[in-house]
Amino acid sequence: MPDLIHGGDSAAAVSSLRSAVMLLSRRLKHQRVDESLSPTEMSVLGTLARCGSATPGELARKEHVQPPSMTRIVALLEAKGLVRLEPHPDDRRQKRVSQTEQAEAMLEESRAKRNVWLTHLVEGLDEDEWATLRAAAPVLEKLAHL
User: Fold this and answer.
1) With 0-12 CB in 10 A as exposed, 13-18 as middle and 19+ as buried, what is 139?
2) Distances in Å between the alpha carbon of 74 and those of 10, 71, 77, 129?
3) CB neighbours of 28 closer than 8 A, spacing ≥ 6?
4) Which of 39, 68, 92, 103 has its CA 20 to 30 A from that of 15?
5) Has this prediction a pTM greater than 0.90?
6) What is the percent of the chain where pLDDT is above 90?
7) Which CA distances in Å does 80 have to 27, 53, 73, 135?
8) What is the mean pLDDT of the chain?
């Protein structure tokens, strides 16, 4: 693949993309249903929703935090009734963390709120801008998972 980002125009486009994605992400994070949860706690719940149950160590790796920090986060989420700890089926020294029905409902409500907010923003675009954004969505999705 050719070196795409080191030319002046490409470097400026990467910088603009980074800035726009970060700003939009920050604004989306403020569209939460439960303000008592930190962004990290919400992220852990989202990971459990996407990936299913996991050990605290697995969650720490996925969330890029240290295991002791994840242990504290899991304890806070458990105290709020959003996760439950269950024995690991293969290793009795380990626990598996899974989301509760309360967490699932809260995440769904939060997604719906964010979708409504983003829909209002999109309504401010013209048809060409909306078409460009629709076409870019799969590429942004790919970037998010590389």
Assistant:
1) exposed
2) 41, 5, 5, 41
3) 114, 117, 118
4) 39
5) no
6) 68
7) 25, 17, 11, 40
8) 89
Strand ranges (E), the chain = 83-87, 95-99
Two tokens, residue 105: 């409902």
3-state class of 78 per DSSP? Answer: helix
CA neighbours closer than 13 Å in the CB half-sphere of residue 97: 28
| Distances from the Cα of 110 to the Cα of 56, 93, 115, angstroms | 24, 34, 9
For the stretch 14-51, pLDDT in tens is: 889 999 999 998 888 888 777 788 888 989 999 999 99
Give the C-alpha separation, 136 to 142, whole Å.
10
Residues 27-45: b if buried by 16+ CB within 10 A, e if exposed: eeeeebbeeebeeebbbbb
Phi, psi of 44 (to 5 degrees): -60, -45
The CA-CA-CA angle for residues 109, 115, 121, to 5°, reads 145
